[in-house]
Amino acid sequence: MKLKILVGTMTSTADYVAQAIQMDCADLVGEIEVQLMDGLDISVFDEDALYLICSSTYGSGDVPDNARQLYESLDAQPKYLGQVRYGVIALGDRTYQQTFAFGGKKFDERLQGLGAQRIGEIWIHDASEGTMPETEGTAWCREWLAQAVATLSASQAA
Ligand SMILES: Cc1cc2nc3c(=O)[nH]c(=O)nc-3n(C[C@H](O)[C@H](O)[C@H](O)COP(=O)(O)O)c2cc1C
Q1: Measured in angstroms, how far is the CA atom of residue 101 from the centroid of ligand 1?
Q2: pTM score, two decimals?
Q3: How far is the CA of 15 from the centre of ligand 1 (A)?
């Protein structure tokens, strides 16, 4: 099975998290690909892969600039994504109380609206806590991946 991590970022934190996961979780899944969201659209979900959205939040609760085209294409070129299984890492900062981690949450909402199925809860990192998102993110991802692989194997066997 392939894990495809789609990265929405402004100042690379989300990319560092994705790369740390790529290095740390290689034993849990056949292949891990990290791809910046730049230039992507909804067709990125055509692949037979497990997806992980890894996105920060900017502006007033917006997705980062490099994620905008992909995010908007989910609205502008909608199609049924019932075959898609995904997880979400949402990076934010709780000092932005009204829009905390909205970047990842917005992707989640739109993907669910198109029939895609999230595995597990959204994992949120709060930059105001001063913890390392790479360390915490990889620890979360190891558990999430184990759950995702078990869920997908069970549904393939059924
Ligand atoms: C100008 C600016 C606006 C931000 N707006 C939000 C926001 O609305 N909500 C939120 O939760 N975090 C917000 N953040 C925090 C970032 O999402 C957070 O620092 C994240 O870890 C950055 O990840 P990145 O380097 O991958 O872009 C903002 C940060 C900056 C610099």
Answers
A1: 8
A2: 0.98
A3: 14
Tell me how far the alpha carbon of residue 48 lies from the centroid of ligand 1, in angstroms.
31
8 CB within 6 A, ligand 1:
no
The structural domains of the chain, ordered by start, are 2-157 (3.40.50.360)
110: tokens are 């739109």
* The pLDDT of residue 152 is above 90: no
pLDDT 10s digits, 48-64: 999 999 999 999 999 99
Whole-Å CA distances, 62 to 9, 21, 54, 68, 106: 11, 24, 14, 9, 8
User: CA–CA separation, 83 vs 131, rounded Å?
Assistant: 35
DSSP secondary structure string for all residues of 76-137: HS----TT-EEEEEEEE-TTSGGGTTHHHHHHHHHHHHTT-EE-SPPEEEEGGG---HHHHH
- The per-residue pLDDT for range 67-85, each reduced to its tens digit, is 999 999 999 999 999 999 9
